[in-house]
């Protein structure tokens, strides 16, 4: 897994090449909404894209993580399904509903049933490499191709291309610092419950860190966003007192945080420190929203593999996930 994390920068470069070479045409009408469907790493890629395009698209974008679709899906919907294997049962179910609703459907996959459906129905699709065998190690492919499909559908302008290129350059420049920070955070997380806070726009990035800690380091973690956390969870830091000291809080800060959210982060830190709770902070680097998102994503991935080493965990295995898939497939 460490080699795959090391290859993330090159993956982004390759993903851009794939997107540029894609011959994708959408023949649908002007879109009233966009649905990004996927589970796990495919789903969190959609969450990051949803947050990134929030101020760029004139239509609403939702991320669908489940078997069924909302009733508003119609011929005026752009539906993008992402699945590493192409056989994710929740995503396949959602695709069938989208096709029944006559939505414009696009696919991102390595193969499987999704690719068969796309080819059989002559639907827009982009095939990404599957050699890693690890969906969570393919986030760069998923995220970049979702942006390209939005671009080819006429919803997103080409500014993202420049920002992607700048992001690759930034990660190359910052990789040494990223690894040092990641190692320190992994040591702080060992034997603790990481509690991850970010602004609402960067909650998907905190979710990516949670998922990587779960799958790679085999460790639980918790995520919430500000300002919402200030309206409920902050009050929960009272009971049971015997658990205090077990969590370690990480606040992910960025220059895109609303000034009032930044103030709330600082005040929340004071509240938690009064309870003798450790509060760590990390500041995103980059000139654009996409740069800062990808900086924190890459930092998160390194934290997870370093923590896996500390936990003596095998980051390449997902026995519990495979068990669940196997048992569900029998029913």
Automatic annotation (TrEMBL):
Keywords: Isomerase. InterPro entries: Glu6P/Mann6P_isomerase_C, SIS_dom, SIS_dom_sf, SIS_PGI/PMI_1. Residues 22-160 form the SIS domain. GO terms for molecular function: carbohydrate derivative binding; glucose-6-phosphate isomerase activity; mannose-6-phosphate isomerase activity. Pfam families: bact-PGI_C. One of its GO terms (biological process) is carbohydrate derivative metabolic process. PROSITE patterns: SIS. Belongs to the PGI/PMI family. This is Bifunctional phosphoglucose/phosphomannose isomerase. It comes from Pontibacter actiniarum.
